[in-house]
Amino acid sequence: MWIEPTPVALGIRFNYDRVMKANRIFETVLYASDLEKTQAFYGDLLGLEVLVVSELVAVFQLPHSMLLVFDPDESGVAGRAVPSHGARGSGHIAFAATDAELDEWIAQFDRNGYPIEKIHPWETGGRSVYLRDPAGNSVEFAPATLWGGNWNF
Question: What is the pLDDT of residues 23-37, one digit of tens each?
Answer without folding.
Answer: 889 999 999 999 999
